[in-house]
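User: I'm curious whether this sequence folds into something compact or stays loose and floppy. Could you predict its structure so I can see for myself?
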Amino acid sequence: MIHVTMLRGAALTLLTAALAGCASPTMTALETASPPDDPFARALSNEYRTVARFEKTQMRDLKDYPYFAEKSLAAATASVIETPTPADPADWSLASMQHRRLHNARHRLVATLANDADRVLPEIAAGAQVSYDCWVEQQEERYQVDDIAACRDRFNGAMAKIDALKAPPRAVFFPLDSATLDKRERGTLA
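Assistant: Here's the prediction. I'll summarize afterward.
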């Protein structure tokens, strides 16, 4: 009985390793895609590709690496208007407090992108968007505290660089389910 259990376990391990090594059609297409001409789309594609590879090879996250690979391919093959948008927290299984925090961060990011950060600071803006998506994905998993913090901190660092280098924004956003601007947004209007 022990030998049968050990053989089944070994077979399952080999099957898992074989499947993990298989290249997905998206990853294959991504590896052969030409870099886009637009600096933001190119940086976005490269950033998403890096996360997809990491999720697949280091984290062995066979569920989520295709998400990042597909976004990388979309950025590599899309026009500037069609580049992938930041993850929507409503599409992920998040605790309510985290949902609100990520929703507000997404609004901040979308406002920054709408105010031409993707054109003025393409690499930093791409890093902010991919770090945000990484933060959402890691937060949904809820168990890799260091990875959640790394993604969140990278997002906040990129946003701070954009805030420091960019002209004042032309748009403000209200907090989720609120008709009142927060202190920072009121300062932007002033």
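Summary: Residues 1-22 have pLDDT under 50 and may be disordered. The two ends are 75 Å apart (CA to CA).
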